[in-house]
């Protein structure tokens, strides 16, 4: 997502095969992605290109998995409220193979896309851990900005040394 936002495309095209869907035999790469999760990924993609998103259904091997995932993705596209992901899903750490792949991708792509560098330390985090880290980061930046504003205001309120000498 960071590269997609930095690239800022006019439209996003997705070849939606749902091979990693839970119920798809055999699960691609060992993944069992829930239909709900596909809906949330669709919602994330809608934040790119001003929401200009095309999902092209490829077909597949398990009609139930394809139907379930497609239905949730269409709901996301329509702006419908998505069912919340279970707490255990949000606490789940990524698959070790995915972490290794992401580390390699970040190493290579960070040469071209500055936005991915900040994610290097968090690729092995659960969603909740990453969200907590982002919140702490925002709070730190906000605190530093507040201190900066307070320092500037104090400097404006205090007379300059030259002003003090001139009034004596």
Primary descriptors:
168 residues; mainly alpha; single chain
Report the portion of residues in β strands: 5-15%
Low-confidence parts, pLDDT < 50 over ≥5 residues?
Answer: none
Task: Tell me the structural class.
Answer: mainly alpha
State the order of secondary-structure elements, H for helix, E for strand. HEHEHHHHH
Q: How many helix segments? A: 7
Compute the separation of the termini in Å: 62 Å
Could you walk me through the main structural features you see in this protein, from its secondary elements to its overall organization?
This protein has a two-stranded parallel ribbon. The chain has seven helices and two strands. It has helices at about 1-5, 35-45, 65-75, 85-90, 95-110, 125-155, 160-165, and strands at about 10-15, 55. Helix 2 (about 35-45) packs parallel to helix 3 (about 65-75). It is about 55% helix and about 5% strand. The protein is mostly helical and about 170 residues long.
What is the structure about, briefly put?
By secondary structure, this protein is mainly α. It has 7 helices and 2 strands.
Helix-strand blueprint:
Blueprint: H1 2-7, E1 12-16, H2 35-45, E2 53-57, H3 63-77, H4 87-91, H5 96-109, H6 127-157, H7 161-167
Parallel strand pairs: 1-2
Helix pairs in contact: 2-3
